[in-house]
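Before surveying the methods themselves, we first show a specimen of the format, giving the amino acid sequence and backbone structure tokens:

:::
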Amino acid sequence: MQINENYHLEDSKKLGYNIYTIEGNVAYAKYIYDKSGAKPWMSSSPCWAKYTEKEIARK
């Protein structure tokens, strides 16, 4: 996931997630998703919304 460290690094550290590892990144992304849904990622949708799920998986 793309976790913006400018906004999330301190909170992720407080919660014990290392967003620089795959496990920590995914766990913190799930935390964000459980808290706010997909909304935090919508600002980047112009970069990925034009692709199908299959195309995104290949990138």
